Automatic annotation (TrEMBL):
NCBIfam families: PRK08594.1 (NF006369). It is an enzyme of class 1 (oxidoreductase). It holds the Pfam family adh_short_C2. InterPro entries: Enoyl-ACP_Rdtase_NADH (IPR014358), NAD(P)-bd_dom_sf (IPR036291), SDR_fam (IPR002347). It comes from the Bacteria. This is Enoyl-[acyl-carrier-protein] reductase [NADH]. It catalyses: a 2,3-saturated acyl-[ACP] + NAD(+) = a (2E)-enoyl-[ACP] + NADH + H(+). Coiled coil: none annotated. Its EC number is 1.3.1.9. Transmembrane segments: none annotated. Keywords: Fatty acid biosynthesis, Fatty acid metabolism, Lipid biosynthesis, Lipid metabolism, NAD, Oxidoreductase. It comes from Rossellomorea pakistanensis. One of its GO terms (molecular function) is enoyl-[acyl-carrier-protein] reductase (NADH) activity.
Length: 257
């Protein structure tokens, strides 16, 4: 058993730019020897994802569109992956969305439409993707999704996204139970706050980061690299006994009352 991912292929979903957690995961998987395939949502991201993918040394990665709200898109994307590589050994799902107006103030004001939108993109998409990816994971493997502490407890302003993450975390357990018999493990990484495009516009983000620096057991903030290296562990056989788990990569902040 080793941490090497040589000879393994992983799909990384959700790179928007170089700050994306998905990009941190991609770099770590690449450094461990994995072959990568990238998916992106909007056309506007095609160039930036292609440029990033081609910056990985010695790697010529496939880059494909996949809007996870669209079943046909998911099917087409994984059919293209099957055609190109045949077998995959896992994927990293790093996708979430909620309406900006609903990430502030009282949770109670969430609209039905906003609630369903965030559940659709941030939670159901993992289930939809697992169903299709399973057929390509004939050698077993590891599926990883990203979550945040606000899915377990109330965190100011996380609101509708907290409810979506609670649903995502429950899905991880049910999916782990379904897929275990096929040798496929499903786990989540609960990351501490990281400044990414999604976090842009969060008005008090600096004070959130400052509180972690002052109070978290490790007295520092989480980096994309720390999340990426945990993803390598979860992707590799070194974590072969772990499934349905939520690993906190947050400087230990979640243990505080
Ligand atoms: P990014 O903004 O870099 O990534 C979010 C990604 O979600 C984008 O690539 C975006 O693509 C994608 N996305 C949104 N809608 C869709 C869709 N319909 N189909 C496919 N992709 C879509 O932010 P992060 O790296 O921060 O977020 C990655 C994950 O990490 C999320 O699940 C987030 O909740 C989680 N997380 C983030 C933390 C943080 O502090 N940053 C902390 C803990 C968890 P596009 O722009 O094309 O729509
Ligand atoms: C407690 C907090 C701070 C408040 C809540 C922030 C929630 C962020 C998550 C979602 C995913 C952000 C989001 O959907 C933003 C969009 O409305 C607007 N942005 C975009 O459309 C950009 C262009 C694209 C790339 O973004 C997406 N997502 O598609 C939580 C923070 C301390 C931690 C955090 C930021 C958690 C998290 O889940 O991301």
């Amino acid at each position: 058993m080793s941490l090497s991912l040589q000879g393994k292929t992983y799909v990384v979903m959700g790179v928007a730019n170089k700050r994306s957690i998905a990009w941190g995961i991609a770099r770590s998987l690449h450094n461990a020897g994995a072959k990568l395939i990238f998916t992106y949502a909007g056309e506007r991201l095609e160039k930036s994802v292609k440029d990033l993918a081609s910056s990985l040394e010695g790697e010529e990665s496939l880059v494909l569109p996949c809007d996870v709200t669209n079943d046909e898109d998911i099917e087409k994307c994984f059919a293209a992956i099957k055609e190109e590589v045949g077998v995959i050994h896992g994927l990293a799902h790093c996708i979430a969305f909620a309406n900006k107006e609903e990430l502030v103030g009282d949770y109670m004001n969430t609209t039905r439409e906003g609630f369903l939108l965030s559940q659709n993109i941030s939670s159901y998409s993992l289930t939809a993707v697992c169903k299709v990816a399973k057929d390509l994971m004939t050698e077993g493997g590891s599926i990883i999704s990203m979550t945040y502490l606000g899915g377990e407890r109330v965190v100011a302003n996380y609101n509708v996204m907290g409810v979506a993450k609670a649903s995502l975390e429950a899905s991880v357990k049910y999916l782990a139970n379904d897929l275990g018999k096929h040798g496929i493990r499903v786990n989540a990484i609960s990351a501490g706050p990281i400044r990414t495009l999604s976090a842009k516009g969060v008005s008090d983000f600096n004070s959130i980061l400052k509180e972690i620096e002052e109070r978290a057991p490790l007295r520092r903030n989480t980096t994309q690299e720390e999340v990426g290296d945990t993803a390598v562990f979860l992707a590799s056989d070194m974590s072969r006994g772990i499934t349905g788990e939520n690993i906190h990569v947050d400087s230990g902040y979640h243990i505080l009352g």
